[in-house]
User: Fold these one by one.
Assistant:
Number 1:
Amino acid sequence: MNKHSEGKGSEMNPLHTSTPIFESLPLTNALGVSVFLKMEAFQPVGSFKIRGIGYACQAHHEKGAKHLIASSGGNAGYAVAYAGRMLGMKVSVFVPESTPAWMREIIRREGAEVIEYGVSWDDAHAHASEVARREDAAYVPPFDDPLIWTGHASMIDEVADAGLSPEAIVLAVGGGGLLCGVLEGLHRVGWNQIPVLAVETEGAASFAGSVKAGRLITLDRITTVATTLGARTVAEEALSWSHKHPIVPWIVSDRDAVDACVRFADDHRILVEPACGAALSTIYNRAEPLRKKNPVLVIVCGGAGVNLALLGQWAQQYI
């Protein structure tokens, strides 16, 4: 922890790493203003998730929990499994039937038990919550938890400590955990008016829909290649933030998201998931809210759910 997060669990040794921040000349040239990247793709589990989830797991560990239970078919489950291994705790991850075999194996490699339940994350979440209550285990949700938001906020501490003062921040929104954490971090360091471009894909735009409706909405289903953005309902706290901080919901197509993944791989030799590509696409496509902001910071959230073969398949399908 650093000076901005004193009193926020500074006695704990973070499970995440402090990630690089650097200017991307390809993205700067694309947008026409300076674009800096916060490289959360370089976390030990490949995504930002370990910040907040690691913080939450440590908090449960310090309170005496022996068993962590999670519900996730992707990055969050991987982060809980990693945190549990590092803390010496038993971990059970409930995944929906749609979770690919290779992702289950990544989670198992960390020593976690993987249990299939239901057809969607919502099914796995409801069941995992009940099992945690019944077994007196600590339940770690993927995004809707104040501990997780506080952990994610540490990335803004690092930006401030690096001396970078962005005029806009771009990030992807799934369930809203990253958004809530970044906003908590912005207010912690006194950046209360820096606008945030909150990016979703067309088949998973529950945050934009909620902001438009003025209330939480639940999507009938998720229809996007960016499956890690696939929360049918965002965290209530994310909607609450929209009333007290300048947030611009922004929706992009699957094609835009995948195209950005390919271009980013060419530009930086780094693979990211379409969820991250959604945020990056706003730079490549010169999203109007960003054109007069200088510099712009992009949270490169990363993701473990990508490899060369998958990126090639997505490119063939969408580009």
Note: The chain has two domains: 3-48+147-318, 49-143.
Number 2:
Amino acid sequence: MNIKEEAFSVPIGANGSLIEHFNRAVKGRLSDNAFALRFAVVASDGANYECELGLMYDNEGGRARSAESIFRFVKRPPRNAGKLNVVVLVPTGIGAEIGGHAGDATPVIQMIAQICDTVITHPNAVNASDINEIPSNALYVEGSVLCRLLMGTVGLQTVRTNRQLVVIDAHQDPVFVNSAINAVNAARSSYGIDCRKIITLEPPIRLRSRYSDSGRAVGQIENLDYLYHVLSECRAEYDAVAISSVITVPSEYHQQYFDSRGTMVNPWGGVEAMLTHAISSEFNVPSAHSPMFESEDIANKDVGIVDPRMAAEAISVTFLQCVLKGLHRSPRIVTSPSELLCGPSIVSASDISCVIIPDKCLGLPTLAALEQGTTVIAVRENCNLMKNDLAALPWAAGQLHIVENYWEAAGVLCAMKAGVAPEAVRRPLSFVNVERRKYTP
């Protein structure tokens, strides 16, 4: 099994469901042995949507034929339980100013968590190598799970702890394997994760990073078959999967990334997201990945004093602690239709009050929120590579709020929590529309 990314154009469609419009376009491109893992609209104009699609190829064809489409959408009626549950999303690999580096959206997550009952986010936003300061009222879910949550096909159930399976590449240099094992034992002794098995994988999976034509960090993955075999064989022994493996990038990228002061898109995150999408979609468990250094020469390189957003990466050896801490209490993925209707113990699309995204980001979470009728806040200050005008989508009145920064986003959330229309705290206050209708029998 292999994973790679491809680009294609979709004509702007007529009125109707955008999700179904993209679903038809993607179906027409899929061979019998392929299924879609990730989808993004990287740019749009009056004529076309420019799309990028992560695809898994299964030479045996079994998974491709049985896999559930990422475009499957279930409309969920609102369930007003008086709670403010907020999804905060920073898509991986798009060079986001905030959250596009090493867990540097964590302060945003911490701030939003003070306002809402539950904040739901993903590894890219809060994973900072040896640091993970996720709030106690946050749910840490991998990107494909977050998509499925908003699409209405899964729910999330909080847990006290997860049994973690850790899979490590059988690195040619034992120092990196030893360091990863020490990282796991440090997590066991310091914050009590439940990990009873570490598997070294030989031959290793092969992750290669590259940039797409749009500039997004994507990649290619090979040798997934053995990893899938191991995860299937051990399935009864774990609730979450942490993977540590080498991501192959040109050797000069390491220094260039730190020297760029944040202008270079993090080359590692995109292919990591492709891997965890595949794992979580297949096994319905939380998963996250941390990269291993390729060699001691790279590990021992002095990168100098780096941009604060990258500093966590500059001081880590294994990059694994953030993953272990995030997966410690990552919620159970609920797929049973009957369980999804069980009420307050399960968070589903019905319970999501708001989705906060960087402006111009158009993918399944945005499309799902649009069709679920969920409020969306788009933050202009979180600049990124995407080139979409979100205001051009067919939002309901008051559904989309485009704000300048996360402080302003927090203000919109406070108004929502208070039951106050956000526009009521701005001036000038517009006149209400008055319609005059005359009844004629």
Note: The CA atoms of residues 162 and 239 lie 5 Å apart.
Number 3:
Amino acid sequence: MKRTLLALALPLLAACGGDRASGDGLSGSILVDGSSTVAPLSEAVAEEFMIANPGVRVTVGTSGTGGGFAKFFRGETDISDASRPVKPDEVAGGYAFIELPVAYDGIAIVTNPGNDFVECLTVEELRAIWAPGSTVSDWSQVRAGFPGRPLTLYGAGTDSGTYDYFTEAVGGEEGASRADFTASEDDNVLVQGVAGDPGALGFIPLAYYEANQDKLRLLGVDDGSGCVAAGAATVQDGSYTPLSRPIFIYVRADRTTDPAVRAFVAFYLDNAAPLAPEVGYVPLSAEAYAAARERFAAGTTGSVFAGGSQVGVTIEDLLRREGASDSTSAP
């Protein structure tokens, strides 16, 4: 298996990189929490880091992006996984932080594998289904020609960055959505729900679709330029719009004085590229990872996103905003 080979290779590569992950006397514990979307990547990095550094314990939790930020700014965690940028009202009175992009992700639109009548949905159709107050409850209401079959909806919970991004990308306003759907911050719950419901339609992180392809059916999305399915290539080249996005880790600035924390974050940025595809994500460009390393080494705090989730923003956009005066850094 690829992961087994990586488990053998990464500690050797890291050992050649100096004190970042040499295992030379590092000890302590690191608490990571937040997005269930980002968790598989953080868990993979943590696993390889602990092999190279057996004296350090890294624990990864999944409270959702919003729940993770709440813990982070209360000082309960060292690193927060996030599938969207931090919001200004989440940092008020909290700790200074360093924002680091680590990969790309796509939001997959999925149905039960028994659904054989739909291949693609337009953004307008998704908007009509998920709009606040929507009464669409049957597939025949989605498009003429679809059969009369109950439509049941599954999606990320309101504490999830996936929910925030999906609602803005599809509905034009973050958090604007009908409430009568099965919601969970645990993406595995959504996978199980869609897999067991013949009338299901859901949105989940691409990584969770790729890990459960035998249980789900992937739909394409048409934003007006033709139908495109989520996948590594379409997420990376930007053609899967508007449901592609960067994902992040946030590091408490005051914890970067801890050698174990510094080593873990450096290891994360050095090894996210080979590990991301193994857990269903799309690596950033080499240039973007280099810029993230520079940002971390310089201790640059704050967010370059002024208003939280922003649809269609690339990592290159983020890097160009490095010195933006409207950053949301904590005091």
Note: The mean pLDDT is 86.
Number 4:
Amino acid sequence: MDELEFRILDTLSRDPGRQMSISALARDIKRLHGTAYYSNTHKALHRLQKEGVVHLTKAGSSSQVSLDLRNRQTIGALSEMDLRKRHSLLSGREELQRLFDSLSDPPSIAPVSLIDAERNAKLNRAELLIQIPGWISDAGTKILGDGLREMEARLNMRIDALALDEKGFRSLLAAPDRNALKEMLSRQTALLGPDLFWSGIRNAWAHGIRIQFDRDETNPAKMSEHDLAYNLARFGFSEFGSPAKEGESIGIEYVVIAVLLKGDARRIQGIPVILAKNPANYALLLFLSKKYGIQGELMGLLRTLAKYKEGQDLRRALLMLEAAGVREVKVNETSVREMMRTYHADART
């Protein structure tokens, strides 16, 4: 793989389900890597097409290019690309080398990706995406959490990790709503197990999941009032006054975090309502609550929710918060109970 082929794959891998013109690809390569020329890009794409890595389709007078996820050769090429990215990252950052060594001892049997590595390293922070094999038990997940906290203290580095099993990973990947996983995937470098990571993406595609990564990162603290009101109503928490006008569909996990960050007491008391009425990924909720410094607030709400709703994922989330030593911020249970009854979210009534 030469340098231009690497740049092409690095650019396409940031949204592997996307089809784009060669001109648009060259512009994106220039934006990411500094230089790109149409003629050279065109020649390199034809080499990659012969290898079965990319798919070129005529569209009028131009050609559209996309990764060929039908071909297993593509997985090898993307894995090689990530290994090169990893080498570049580790050779320039001693703190990332120590993190890699810690994650590799003992050797990982699951893909571990580093998100937005350069930016986070400057903040002495690492953001990880860990894909947990299906056979790992709850005890194994707890051991993983304990190990990450020990690593965080030993390396003197903040580590925010999103650990997802296959079901949770695919569910978030397939969701039509904007969510943090699809945003993270556009900025990932597979630190461990790149072949397993890209095989997982290919397998999801083979099962009919549309592969779409989102380039822009959502800041829940800056979520617009319009979008927040719309999504709260969408999840069953309609507010008094005129009905919320349609906005961008945003995942329930981001909505919960946005409500907590904005601090509106009535809406905060409505969080158990929307969590009782709608499925949520509690691993993602915990990840976001740590990232934005509101674990204690979330813990108090989940503790109250557990009095109205049963579920293994909810119980596991509370156990993980307890194991992390999070100090619970108490909520007004009387107000929450009244809210649950008002919105018919209390299954006992």
Note: The chain has three domains: 3-67, 72-206, 220-342.
